[in-house]
């Protein structure tokens, strides 16, 4: 899979760990930055991540900041993205199964490395359930429906 990953300064270490983990699983990973822990604004990286998921450059996105909240809000400003803030594997799997989430967000100050890896595993191994969820997901990008 083609996966993009981005963070703010608070999550740069978790981003590096997850990037290497995903590469080790055989995924193609685009690291959208930042490269250092120097202060940056999470919306800039959330918007960058959303752009590459929306245009199809990446199939999925991984968004990280201190809490995961701010960057998930930034990603979700793009109508083509459905970014779910998760903290454990069940919510990660349900984000895919029920909401067809194409991005996952986590907080580096709240989620440890092993839990973050477990969330990624659940997210990437779960398919969208379709059916009764499909119409609801369509409304997420097209509120006039």
Rg, alpha carbons: 14 Å
With strands numbered from the N-terminus, the spatial order across the biggest sheet is 2-1-3-5-4
What is the helix tally?
6
Largest sheet: 5 strands, parallel
Note the overall shape.
globular
Helices and strands: which structural class? alpha/beta
The helix/strand order is EHEHEHEHEHH
Taking pLDDT < 50 over at least 5 consecutive residues as the criterion, the unreliable ranges are none
Distance between the termini: 31 Å
Q: What can you see in these coordinates?
A:
The chain is of the alpha/beta class. Helix content is 46%, strand content 17%. The protein is built from six helices and five strands. The radius of gyration is 14 Å and the shape is globular.
Brief summary:
The chain is α/β, with parallel strands linked by helices and 145 residues long.
Question: Which tags fit this structure?
Answer:
RpiB_LacA_LacB, 145 residues, 5-stranded parallel beta sheet, RpiB/LacA/LacB family sugar-phosphate isomerase, alpha/beta, 5 strands, RpiB_LacA_LacB_sf
Question: How do the strands and helices of this protein lay out in sequence?
Answer:
Layout lengths: L1 E6 L4 H13 L3 E4 L10 H13 L5 E6 L3 H8 L6 E3 L3 H11 L3 E5 L5 H13 L8 H8 L4
Parallel strand pairs: 1-2, 1-3, 3-5, 4-5
Protein name: RpiB/LacA/LacB family sugar-phosphate isomerase
Keywords: Isomerase
GO molecular function: isomerase activity
């Amino acid at each position: 899979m083609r996966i993009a990953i981005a963070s703010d300064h608070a999550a740069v270490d978790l981003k590096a760990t997850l990037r290497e983990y995903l590469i080790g699983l055989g995924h193609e990973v685009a690291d959208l930055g930042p490269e250092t822990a120097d202060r940056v604004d999470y919306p800039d990286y959330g918007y960058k991540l959303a752009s590459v998921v929306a245009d199809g450059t990446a199939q999925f996105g991984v968004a990280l900041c201190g809490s995961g909240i701010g960057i998930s809000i930034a990603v979700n400003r793009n109508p083509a993205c459905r970014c779910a803030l998760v903290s454990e594997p069940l919510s990660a799997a349900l984000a895919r199964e029920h909401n067809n989430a194409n991005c996952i967000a986590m907080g580096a100050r709240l989620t440890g490395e092993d839990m973050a890896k477990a969330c990624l595993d659940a997210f990437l191994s779960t398919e969208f359930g379709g059916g009764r969820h499909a119409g609801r997901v369509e409304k997420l990008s097209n509120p006039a429906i």
